[in-house]
Batch of 2 targets.
Target 1
Amino acid sequence: MTWRIVRLVVQYGLVLFAAAALNFALPRLAPGDVTDYLIPPEQAGAITAEQRERILARYGLDEPLPVQFREYLAGLVRGDLLISARYSRPVTDIVLERLPWTLLLVGTSTLLAVAVGTAAGFRSAWKRGRATDVSTMSTFMLIDSMPPFFVGLLLILVFSVHLGWFPIFGAVPTLPTEGVELVVEVARRLILPALSLTAAMLGTIYLVARPALVSELREDYVLMAQAKGLTKRQVRRHAERNALLPVTTMALINLGTVVGGATVIETVFSYPGLGRLLYESVLARDYPVLQGTFFVLAVTVLAANFVADLLYPLLDPRVRRPFASP
Amino acid sequence: MRSRGMLVALLVSSLLLALSPTASTEETSRVTIGLNGFENNITPFTHSFGAFPNTHDLVHLVYDSLFWSQARDDPEPWLAESAEPSEDYTTWTVSLRDDVTWHDGTPFTADDVQFSMEYYVEHEADSGRYAHHVGDMPLYEDSEIIDDHTIRLDFAHPAGQFRIMPGADLPILPRHQWEDVAEPGAFTEELPVGTGPYRVAEIVSDQQYRFEANDDYFQGRPLVDELVMPIIQEPAAAFAALQTGDVDYVSQNVPTELIEAFDRADDIEVLRGTIFQSIQLYFNTPREPLDDPQLRKAIALAIDREEIVETVLLGNGEPGRDSYMHPESPWAIDEEIRQFDPDQARDLLDEAGYDQMNGDGIRLTPDGDPLAFTVLVSSFDPQGIRTSQIVAEQVSEVGIDLEVEALDPATIGQRRRAPEPGQEADFDIRVGGLEAHAHVDPDALYYFFHTPGERGFGETQTSYANPEFDEIVVRAGESGDLDERRELLAEAQRILAEDVPMIVVMYPDGIWAHRTDGYAGWIADFGHSPLTKRSFLAEYAGTGVGEGPLGTGVEEAARQPWVWVLVALLVIAVVVAAVFLRRRGADEYE
């Protein structure tokens, strides 16, 4: 038992360390540094090499790489993600401002995509080969093939420009609002970006859900259940419960990718999430923000994995044993 | 089916709520401006150039300079009442207005001017945009406060154009806010205190700015009480928001393909003006064989700039000139406009020894190397990419091969500068854009094209080196006589047109759009975008104030996003519960 816990901690610890090391190393492999971003192009020569050094020194980016790495790890232990070179503010603050919006957007879209995608996938599976299946499949393939950017602009065109139902930009109104009105305004601003992101995920979920149920329906236990004379609803409960396993895994493993996919949608809708922050920080070579944000994302994905591990035994009695290893 | 009814009721009610318009009361006149990028704290040391081109004008909503504006050769007195030079222009005596206060009520005095000069010199690295106008050309030395509103400024060499640079450029800082700030580049905790028409009331990182009018502004109270500036980067979304009326003005240039539609729309007005934009090819002039001016001139002759203006800008611009400066700049010359002439280009290349060709029809240098070059362009600059592709096609007609390589801006930033002083930068040709300041600053020629070294910053541009040119631009910078300076700058431009270290492909027009049912005072202020302080001052602004969208009081709850995660989870829980209840109710799978 203790051994299991130790093993679990060591495993997650190693993965986290590897993620932290990669987050540190990868951005630094790209050419250029933050001064190339901070200094406006036609003024780039106005400062000397020493002045450039001094700017880097302010953010600890002039130190040798091992020292920077040590500082970064020490910061992680302290819960301090250093100072952003682009904003001159603590990375922790910046990430915490963005994280809730990303969770809201990605969370809403993931749940929506899983609900709709699974329902449609299961329906297709039950009706496989029939007209319903073919038409559902084609619809989902069509949605899946549209770039999220295009879906977003299309939604803006229809629901904002023509119908005038939803605002086009931001997560909160430009003017201070409070109470119920604020809830409504935040919801109005969430709908279009969430729908765009849902559309981007829908195909994947559908494509996992449908074959998952199809293969379950071919299992002997389904035949057995039907032969036993169980109602269709009872049979469905058996089969769908098992088919949910790959869907859950897919949805949780996908989280990291979804945050990346949210970048485009956050840009189109000026939504203040982590995706856009990451993208702009890559352009700005803002290493502290990059390593901090990627680390937070790594933790989130690992946490999702952990949740998946915990959920499995609930969904699947076959893996129901203490401390299923990840 | 009770629960199913509940679900429907829930959906309907949330839809109704979503559609109900926001209540508003009439209190404050307000203009909403879609800004194309977040600029960090609005101080001369912290603003980033994410939203370039607005930066200079946003900073100058909050701060003032001694004169305004730099776009003309005779800026009007602003914080200053007058400035008189000594005979040799090394000393300027500036008398200041005595009715100016900082946003916090502290009086503005000569002490602040002295402090600003010293502070910019001391912190030059943190303010590449402004400080070189007191730390290089001209070089600030010392000053003496004569009385509260008079100051004498001493320069190391003649400061002939003091009224323009630094006079109409340098934002004057309050000593009481900055004197204890050791790291101005990290000044993000406090909002700036300026003398300008607007003070920053709120900054929500990457989301929006809110500016409030400075009621005591010495040029009169600004016409709009509040400027709200949400950040909308994506042009398609920003202009959609203009169409729906979510914003009154968009800070970006109207994309060429939208101009016609906006010209026809009743609720949108298109403003045309100039902020002196240009798009140009920079040669890495020390690199062989591009170090040959004949080759560079031949490339210039092989580019059909009229066609590029028609294709890329749909005619909304002017073809570029090899004399560099924008045609409307007070310093530009009109002769020396190079016409498209591929035959002359071929002759020139033959004469210069590039008369042999390889099997692909590409000319060879006398050493036998093909005339093949890479053109670097930012992958975020669609206009630059299209321009360089057309240039490559045109230049291939005379036997020169250009390959366009689109890279991200920071990579280009690294490759354009020499790794160590004296070394060669790692590019052949690159495409870039410049704006306003770079064409109206009479010292721009000095800064961009002076031989690399102690003075100017030519090493990050083209590394062009010509001692004769250096002497002329230094003399122009020091000359106090307007005619003499103009003649010297004309001479410098003629030399550039002959040596072609840079080819300006085109000068795009400034084209902006605002709504007609909101604020009506927008002006296409010469050398600025309409988002500039004079658009909001009664003496300069257009026809007056319209009824802008109006709003309610101020509070901070909107900035606590965690609440929304909880709310969303709750809503989702309800929906999921409703779905499950419904499923329980359904007996049979169809």
Target 2
Amino acid sequence: MQARPVLVAVVAAALAAGAGLAAPADRWSEEERATIASMSLSALEPIPADPSNRYADDPRAAALGQRLFFDTRLSGNGRVACATCHDPKREFQDGTPLARGVGTTDRRTMPVAAGAWSEWMFWDGRKDSQWSQALGPLESPVEHGGTRAQYVHVLARHYRREYEATFGRLPNLTGVPLRAGPVADPLARGAWDALPAARRDSVTRAFANIGKAIAAYERRIRYGRSRFDRFADELARTGRTPDGVLSRDEIAGLRLFIGKAGCITCHNGPLLTDQHFHNTGVPQAAGLPADPGRERGAKAVLADEFNCRSPYSDAPAGACAHLEFLDAANPEMRRAFKTPSLRNVAERGPYMHAGQLATLEAVVEHYDRAPAAPRGRSELLRPLGLTVRERAQLVAFLGTLSAPLSTPAAPLAPPD
Amino acid sequence: MTRTWKRAAAGVGLAVLGLVGTGMAFHHGLTGAHRPDDREFGLGPRRSAGGRYVASLQAARPIELRKLLTMRIVLTDSTGGPVDGATLAVDGGMPEHRHGLPTRPRVTRPLGQGTYQVDGVKFNMGGWWVLTFRVDAGAARDSVTFNLDL
């Protein structure tokens, strides 16, 4: 009789080993189950309103925005559209470390999906709405490389009917040069400065509406339900690990994600991002100037011509609390960058704000190692001490977050 | 980290801890990243570091992550009388992660009866947070710290 408990334990251990560690994977504490449920797309709140864009949910604006998104005439050389870097066939990104428009930028192209849930746009959050974000690249000398006057001329020539049906009369462009705007090019800037203020304002208002139409389109681009979401929802419903949804390694990776590896600290909620900015010691990109990240972005968004408090915003007074309570003098924001969503992350390397890390394996290795930051201070306090197997399990888990976008096919293709 | 997340995920975090906090376990603020005893967590009442005030926080529960929040702080003196006319400054952060608050919250208006509205609070991550209010009411300056587990 004395030997019996030992025998039971031995048999149990042998069974567990034979079953490939199935037993631990099947057990989740109540807290773990709640954490996993909080990461499901089912927990995503309804799309937030954008009070700064009164056309945000106007289908006519979205239809115009889709055409503009794919239109290469909105560029200095006639060859660059939003879709050039934000390719719908590739998660609305370009798969390259640094974005290439008419020139090459200093940053990695960000995906577009679920941007409507984000308070801050770009890696440094220098824009505070999808519509103001869309305007930045249009006037960047290395992205679209054109001017706002040129773009409003494109509206007048090619989109007058659709534009005026939604946004009202286009401004009179008589005497407005094709190349004029507050851009780096001194000739275009000089031509812009020579226009009377009222004309500059009317052109700028139509230019802002280009952003609002594109934002109305982009709001429709959403993440679809992944294998992880199926797993999380079934676990929440039944309290048991569902069969055949995730592999053992993927489940082990999930356990690491919410536990030992601590990924969930920043990659939290259904979009797997805290929508904030962190210095995680990401290495300096070779050949690029030092990037101050959010430290500069926070100041830039307060000064932005198209922010929530600007005359081009439709937000009523008091509706821009994100700006009101922004801490633009926080030294922790030096070289801090936006936490990206991890949805579909396996489909869109390379990673980090300048594509410094080519693979998810390299990303997990970075967080495991927790190197000091090249500038500022990393929030990663110590190495995680993951085994090679655990790192592979985390990568396997990240792959379960992939799914086709939930957006209908039509918005994902170039318009007729 | 695992420990804090287990709590956060339970979705009961503050509701339960707020009750625990009514044990009037007073604490002199934070020194380093050593997580205080569970009794030190919650919405109060909390005695200020110098013992001049007792303060409680009021917040919608459960406290949501990633959202700009409005809270209230109720301030009384050591005899239990409401303290009006005080100037309050808000600071805080996550000691275990060595970072401050993601926003710059502030007291936006006094509501009377020792109650003040605090706007612009945001918690972007789960885990142990501190919120410290520096209180200046006449000659009596003091500070009161709340530990929250989200």
